[in-house]
């Protein structure tokens, strides 16, 4: 996750409600939490501006309409909708120079990591995203040796890359040290990826890191970024993809998070157009089901540079044949070779709305 700018989600300081504690005195309740309070003990565990009546809902901003009333809008990436999770306890609230970080215990999905009000992962379904974004590219090329992860400060992609014994070097460039620290404390099943001796951590701006990277250094680059709003917008623009292509060897591969087919066909088409101009090998779109992401799915853009042809649809480096890979650190929970090939099967509406997909979504010749 390459973080965006913080948006100030702290609990408002204005207190306009009071509650009796039973001994005649009154306890002041934050205005944002009044509706959530059935009893005073809940105050400490569920007090946050994104939590109302014990439920977390993804970040909302507001503006005044002509009548002066407050009108609420959801995140601009998915206007008109928000996914909610029941909160058992808020475990951590903090803020870096880039973003707000929230961790809470949910009743259905385990611990949840939230950045700037947007769910990044949950313990229950993180396997789908982490495993697919990693193994779709790494199982499509023989014996990958040098891998770069952009973002991914939770460590989940590192955990998955480490299943590949052929890999000799794993660079990771994450902009926000706080994400790394919080993940190591609250998400040890993901942050275990940092313990691999092949991992080299670089805390800083990924754009600048790639500009300095030697030409042709990496066999694979995995971009585990946040949604392209604010500073992260740069990560879906042509100059960034050009630096990635330069850093890949001939026949090297990129896997880039590519949003939801239900919500962002315009963005998917723009990214595909840029990548077809930039990468001279092949360009493909794949997807997976992740229940706690907007619309319940997430997409991946897979590209290869000019050189040895890459057949993304049929894995040439199947994970089932890599000794110990399926049980390394922990057993695979989502990815397998059948899911790999199935991820490239696209619904008719997506092929129709993203016209370029009809031209590119075919096996390599």
Care to describe what's here?
The protein is of the alpha+beta class. It is built from eleven helices and 17 strands. Helix 7 (238-247) links the parallel strand 14 (218-224) and strand 15 (248-257). The chain starts with 14 loop residues before the first strand and ends in a 5-residue tail after the last helix.
Topology:
Layout: E1 15-20, E2 26-30, H1 42-46, E3 51-52, E4 55-57, E5 60-64, E6 70-74, E7 84-95, E8 100-106, E9 111-115, E10 118-122, H2 126-138, E11 146-151, H3 156-161, E12 169-174, H4 177-186, H5 188-191, E13 199-203, H6 206-212, E14 218-224, H7 238-247, E15 248-257, H8 265-278, E16 283-289, E17 297-304, H9 337-342, H10 348-353, H11 357-360
Parallel strand pairs: 11-12, 11-14, 12-13, 14-15
Antiparallel strand pairs: 1-2, 3-4, 4-7, 5-6, 7-8, 8-9, 9-10, 15-17, 16-17
């Amino acid at each position: 996750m390459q973080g965006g700018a913080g948006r100030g989600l702290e609990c408002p300081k204005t207190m306009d409600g009071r509650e009796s504690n039973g001994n005649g005195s009154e306890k002041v309740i934050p205005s944002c939490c009044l509706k959530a309070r059935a009893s005073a003990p809940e105050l400490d565990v569920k007090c946050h501006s994104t939590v109302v009546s014990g439920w977390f809902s993804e970040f909302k901003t507001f503006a005044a309409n002509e009548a002066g009333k407050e009108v609420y809008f959801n995140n601009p990436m998915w206007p008109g909708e928000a996914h909610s999770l029941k909160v058992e306890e808020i475990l951590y609230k903090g803020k870096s120079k880039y973003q707000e970080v929230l961790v809470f215990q949910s009743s259905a999905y385990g611990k949840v990591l939230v950045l700037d009000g947007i769910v990044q992962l949950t313990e229950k379904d993180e396997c789908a995203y982490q495993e697919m974004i990693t193994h779709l590219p790494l199982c499509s090329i023989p014996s990958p040796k040098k891998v770069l992860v952009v973002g991914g400060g939770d460590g989940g992609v590192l955990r998955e890359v480490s299943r590949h014994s052929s890999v000799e070097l794993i660079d990771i460039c994450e902009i926000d040290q706080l994400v790394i620290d919080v993940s190591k404390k609250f998400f040890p099943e993901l942050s275990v990826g940092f313990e691999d001796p092949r991992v080299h951590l670089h805390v800083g701006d990924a754009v600048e890191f790639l500009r300095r990277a030697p030409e042709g250094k990496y066999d694979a680059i995995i971009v585990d970024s946040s949604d392209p709003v604010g500073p992260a917008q740069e990560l879906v623009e042509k100059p960034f993809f050009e630096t990635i292509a330069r850093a890949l060897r001939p026949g090297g591969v990129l896997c880039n998070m590519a949003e939801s087919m239900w919500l962002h066909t315009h963005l998917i088409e723009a990214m595909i157009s840029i990548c077809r101009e930039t990468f001279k090998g092949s360009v493909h779109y794949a997807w997976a089901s992740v229940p706690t992401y907007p619309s319940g799915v997430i997409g991946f853009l897979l590209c290869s540079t000019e050189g040895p042809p890459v057949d993304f649809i049929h894995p040439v480096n199947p994970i089932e044949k890599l000794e110990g890979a399926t049980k390394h650190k922990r057993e695979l929970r989502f990815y397998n070779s059948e899911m790999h090939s199935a991820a490239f099967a696209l619904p008719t509406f997506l092929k129709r709305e993203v016209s370029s997909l009809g031209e590119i979504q075919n096996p390599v010749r």
